[in-house]
Specification:
Blueprint: E1 8-12, H1 17-28, E2 32-37, H2 40-52, E3 56-61, H3 67-81, E4 86-89, H4 105-133, E5 136-141, H5 154-173, E6 179-186, H6 192-200, H7 203-209, H8 220-231, E7 242-245
Parallel strand pairs: 1-2, 1-4, 2-3, 4-5, 5-6, 6-7
Helix pairs in contact: 1-2, 1-8, 3-4, 4-5
Bound molecules: NADP nicotinamide-adenine-dinucleotide phosphate.
NADP nicotinamide-adenine-dinucleotide phosphate (NAP) binds next to helix 1, helix 4 and helix 6.
């Protein structure tokens, strides 16, 4: 039985990696899926894949760090579907790994604008829509780097700590209005983000692997499953939680 028939799910960054797997999983479970990202060709391929499987999906080109584009996204979601039941705020970037003394203000601006400001901006409009319709569920994609420090990625780690702060605060602000807000904290998941990192620094692959007790990288589908569960009625008493999905990795050493 499909769990999300007649429901509408937004996935930011739904054209690649964890977001793509989550968009496909939502569609398989009956939801109408809205994909928001910048790269059109990749996004349209996911929409096509969903439609081939008799699902429903649209792509709304959006840079989550740009307020006018985010406003346009939510205006369109309202116009097309009239509601928003689930939002997975997943869009994010990882900067080149460098120690703090070598990192730049450009990296700070890019990573914080997309990973933190972008999540806050999307949450603001998601919550407005959910308040108007009487409820909804938000899942933010943080990271184990949002719980522990990640050497070489202090700015990324700070952005993900911030996402967890937004998650906990919003969860408590809207508990009585039927809006649940949780975060997933993936450990290393094999996606284009990590493939790019290992392409530039191959030695990082073994270093990452050595810190995963299960001795393997996670798959995007293993995060998608947790996101959908958090959106389901089975997680109805959960809000303000940050769930680590890291093959036994609890804190990054
Ligand atoms: N892979 C891991 O090991 C891992 C671990 C912990 C957390 N995460 C988090 O998981 C999320 C997804 O990453 P991934 O691993 O699946 O990597 P990915 O395949 O590179 O996906 C990143 C996604 O974010 C989108 N995105 C980036 N900047 C955006 C912007 N300004 N506006 C809209 N969309 C934007 C990208 O689409 P466009 O470029 O087309 O916009 C893409 O869909 C990120 O938040 C990442 O920090 C990943």
């Amino acid at each position: 039985m499909k769990r999300f028939t007649e429901k509408v799910a937004l996935v930011t960054g739904g054209n690649s990696g964890i977001g793509r797997a989550t968009a496909l999983a939502f569609a398989r479970d009956g939801a109408k899926v809205v994909i928001a990202a910048r790269r059109e060709t990749l996004a349209l391929a996911v929409v096509e894949e969903i439609k081939k499987d008799d699902g429903e999906a649209v792509f709304i080109k959006t840079d989550v760090s740009q307020q006018l584009q985010v406003q346009n996204l939510f205006n369109k979601v309202k116009k097309i579907y009239g509601r928003l039941d689930f939002a997975f705020n997943n869009a994010g970037v990882m900067a080149p790994m460098r120690r703090m003394d070598k990192s730049t203000t450009d990296t700070w601006d890019e990573v914080i604008n997309i990973n933190l400001f972008g999540v806050w901006l999307c949450m603001k409009y998601e919550i407005q829509q959910m308040l108007n319709q009487g409820g909804g569920v938000i899942v933010n994609n943080a990271s184990t780097a949002g719980i522990g420090g990640l050497p070489g990625s202090a700015i990324y780690s700070a952005s993900k700590h911030g996402v967890i702060g937004l998650t906990k605060s919003a969860a408590v602000e809207y508990t009585t209005e039927n809006i649940r807000v949780n975060a997933v904290c993936p450990g290393p998941i094999m996606t284009p983000m990590l493939e790019e990192l290992f392409g530039v620094k191959p030695q990082m692959k073994d270093a990452f692997l050595s810190r995963i007790p299960m001795n393997r990288f996670g798959t995007p589908e293993e995060i998608a499953g947790v996101v959908l569960w958090l959106c389901s009625h089975e997680a109805s008493f959960m809000t303000g939680c940050s769930i680590v999905v890291g093959g036994g990795q609890t804190v990054i050493p």
